[in-house]
Design a protein that fits this description.
With about 110 residues, this protein is an alpha+beta fold. It has one domain: Thrombin, subunit H (Beta Barrel). The chain has a six-stranded antiparallel beta barrel with strand order 1-2-3-6-5-4. The chain starts with 7 loop residues before the first helix and ends in a 10-residue tail after the last helix.
Length: about 110
């Protein structure tokens, strides 16, 4: 099983960027499902709402610049879930994606 081999501690240290981005996720058993991404890093993202996913569930989402990328659920609460990407997004692709996801420059972190 290949994937990003980072510890949860490493992931928590990654810079997260606030976003407001709805996506349709593809789940192997549940089919298409709506998710709302509220923050994202090169390693993963957090979705809010009422995710009906459990830890370890895998899904595929489509992001600007990056395209289709697989992620798996690493934690859940009643109204949020955290996901780790199966690979780390390259910095240049990530920064281009953030520019599209955060059209308001006031939301962008200083590089």
């Amino acid at each position: 099983m290949a994937g990003a081999q980072l510890s949860v501690t490493d992931l928590r240290r990654a810079t997260r960027h606030p976003v407001d981005y709805p996506v349709i996720a593809e789940h192997r058993l549940r089919g298409d499902m709506k998710l709302h991404i509220t923050n994202i890093s090169a390693h993963g993202f957090m979705a809010d709402g009422e995710p009906v996913l459990g830890r370890g569930d895998r899904l595929i989402i489509r992001l600007p610049v990056v395209g289709r990328i697989e992620a798996y659920c690493i934690w859940t609460t009643e109204d949020r879930a955290g996901f780790q990407f199966e690979r780390i997004i390259r910095l240049d692709d990530f920064m281009s994606m953030i520019r599209e996801l955060q059209p308001n420059p006031a939301l962008r972190r200083k590089s």
